[in-house]
Every structure is written in C-alpha cells, then in structure tokens.
Amino acid sequence: MTTASSDADTRAKILRLLGEIAPEADLSKLDPEVGFRDQLDLDSMDFLNFVVSLHTTFHIEIPESDYPKYTTLNGCVAQVAASRT
Amino acid sequence: MAEFVMPTLGADMTEGTLVQWKKRIGERVTKGDIIAEVDTEKAAIEVECHASGVIEQLLTKPGDKVPVGTVMAVIREEGQAAAPPSQPQSITPQPITPQPVPPPDRGTAPPPSSGSRLRISPAARKRAAERGLVLTALQGTGPDGAITLEDVSRASATPPDATKPADAAERQTRMRQTIAAAMTRSKREIPHYYLSTTIDVSRALTWLTAENGRRPVTERLLVSVLFIKAVALALRQVPELNAVWKDGAPVRSERIHIGTAISLRQGGLVAPALHDADRAGLGELMQRFQDLVKRARAGSLRSSELSDATITVTSLGEQGVETVFGVIYPPQVALVGFGKVVERPWVANGLIVPRPVVTASLSADHRVSDGHRGGLFLAELDRFLQAPQSL
C-alpha cells in the first residue's frame, strides 16, 4: 500500500470513528486543519472515547500529554502515520 | 396483586409511550428486572419493576401513550392465587418461559442490558428518530439482528406509516416544554438560595495527571469524576442537602445517588443517577459515568437511573461558563454546579502565584437548609479536592 492510499485509508477510518461519536455531524464539511472538538461539539468524554477508539483501531499508545496532537483530522492522520515508522 | 404503573422518571415527565414489553404474560419477574421499554419526551427508557412474582396481565399495548401513574400491568406476587380465567386480559396470554433472573444490582455497577433489548447503533437510532421511525418496526440485518444505518435508510424510503411518532423537531419542542414545566414548578415552589466558592484545583490536577500517566488509555479519569466524588463525600458531612421534598417535608436519603447532567447531542439534557457515588472508587465511578453518558445519548437509560437521583451535579466548564446558577430539579433540594477550570492569580504563603481554579456553586432549598449549612458543604467540597488521593 502506498503512503497516499494508506493515509486515505487512515482518514476514512478516523472519520468513521468520529461518526460513531457524533452521528448527527456532516463529516463531509469537516475542516481537517481545524480542531474537531469545536466543529463537532465534542466534550471531554467524547474526546476521551475518541482517543480510546484510535488506540483500539490503530494499536497506538496515546499518552495524555499527546492529546493536543490529536485534535484535528490532519493531526490524527500524521500521528497514525508516524506510529508506523 | 402488585400493579406496575407508568413511572415518574423525573419531575418533567407527565406521560410515556410503551415501546415494547420485555416480559410476557405468565413470565416470572424479580424486583429490579427490566419489564418494559418506555419512550418519554427525552429518551427511550428501560423500566424496572418493583415487585416479584408472575406477570398476570399486560394492560397497555406497544404504541399506547399513557399518563404517569396509569396501571400498565398486574403482577401476581408470591403466594397469591392466579386470577380467575374469566378476568379480562387485553393481550392474549403467552406460553410461560421461565428464565433465571439475577438479583437486582442497583447501587454498584449498572446491571447488564436485557438480552432481548433492541440492538441498534447510536447512529441508526439517531437517524430513525430524525425520520420518525418506530424502532420495533424496523428489520435489523446487522450482527445478531442489530438495526444498522442502512436498515433505517431502507425503511425511510418506504411510504410513511400513519402511526409514526412525531418527528425530531416536534420531539425537541416537547422536550423543551417538559423541561420548562419542571423548572417553572421548581422556581415557583422552591425558595432557592445560591452560594459559590472558588477552589484551587492545582493539587487535584497534578494528582490527576500523574494518575492518568499510570493508567492505560481505557481507564483514564476525567476531572469531572473527581468533582462528583468530592460532592458525594461532602454530602456525608451535610446530609440535609441529600434529600427529596415529599408530602410537605424533607426526607433525607441514606444513600447518595448523584444525578449527573448530561447534554444530549440532539439537544436537551437528562440527569441520570450514579448510584452510591460516595462508595465507589474513582476508577469504577469513571467507568459507570462513561457508560451512563453513552447510554443517555443512545437512548437506553433505565428507570431507576432517572428516578433515584438525590442531588444533581452539573458541569458547564466546557462551554466556557465560569459560574453556574442552577435550578433545583424537584423533588431534590440541592444542585451543585462547576464552571470552567481557569488560571487565576492566587495568594499562597504571601505570594501571588498562578493557580488553576474552579468556581463551585450550590443552589439549595431554603425550606431544608440555610446558608450556614450550604457554606459548610462548599468548605467540605474544597477540603476533599485538596486531598485527591483520598477520593
């Protein structure tokens, strides 16, 4: 799998996880550079559940100090990609 | 005979719609079993029965909307003779299907969901509500018959049924009306007084960061759980705030069930109870809180969770609010609010230093307590948050 297709796959999986947490959201309008807590009206419980989902789906360790790196779609994709190297 | 009535699941509920019976005529039930699923203005609720015995009659049909207090079923208690065969029954008796029934587990971890519970993803439930579809009429094609988004979309494409419930917008309107009715009653009947205090939470946050560093991601804690536990412990010292107003007098509760205000994604809020919050460890409390939020938003709370709360805690810090001036939820006699954790100049040991602080507020019923006792409660709350390792 190429890096581009791998990132696209990661992006699709992350959007699916977000869709489970915010089922009413129109994720096609999500700005990948803007924090999704504000865009999707996520609270701290939602965000914790999202981090747990990322951990379970991608088998990555996410220390609490790294949470700020996972607040945008592009940030999440970059972190998942970095975990593969 | 014991009567199973449409329960009051909060001061703002006046009626409910039976979605489905979870037990059949002739089936044995134990106190605490989930007997029915009821739809309220806010959410679908699994209703527990308060008697043990055998279901004698089911008097309400799925889809029926009945007022609170209406007898919906009759339960023949142990040692009582069966009703004569000529007694009218609105539903044809079903074969008896004895099942082992676990004892009620209120006060510890929430009981497991009923095995016959409708399986549906939160997204599908939400979509179905938006489109006004009756869940029990949907055909699930997912794992174990679970209703999927595709099932809902397929059902939406079929011609509308005249018996559909109101759409999401109408439900929203009704929810606002019922909340307004309860809050109007609260402000009319309860002489509120309000107190607040600013609490230095630097010790609590430092402890929480270290504790979460030791915990796997699946077991991490949120600061709101520390607040809930501290409230529960402080109530032991000022128990008159942990009470309900009943028949013109306060009735103290021996147990501390914290109603936690949870905003629903489609709008509105519910405040289901975390039972015996003072006795649960932080890890267990967090797990139960997570489960409660998940089920509140998926529309699968249990009746005891909506009717047992003895006080409400609401945290609005994430919305940027610094101070909460709460309206007490009848028949409770107090509400505790937490605002946003903010950095503020703080004087400690003669020096001005930046500290994370939170404003905790108390709305309380002057018929039951006064400012002196309310102040003691807030002081106790502060004291517990200065020793987070003891929570």
Structure, explained:
The complex is a heterodimer of chains A (85) and B (391). Chain A is mainly α. Chain A is built from 4 helices and no strands. Helices cover 59% and strands 0% of the residues of chain A. In chain B, β13 (262-263) and β14 form a beta hairpin. In chain B, α1 (122-130) runs parallel beside α2 and α5 (223-237) packs across α8. Chain B starts with a strand and ends in a 6-residue tail after the last helix. Mean pLDDT of chain B is 83; it is low at 86-117 and 159-165. Chain B has helices at residues 122-130, 149-157, 168-189, 202-214, 223-237, 282-298, 303-307, 371-385, and strands at residues 2-5, 15-21, 28-29, 34-39, 44-48, 53-58, 65-67, 71-77, 192-200, 243-246, 249-252, 258-260, 262-263, 269-270, 273-274, 301-302, 311-315, 334-338, 342-348, 351-365. Chain B contains 8 helices and 20 strands. Classes of the chains: A mainly alpha (85), B alpha+beta (391). The interface between A and B is medium-sized, with 18 and 21 residues.
Please provide a brief summary of the model.
The complex is a heterodimer of chains A (85) and B (391). With 85 residues, chain A is an all-alpha fold.
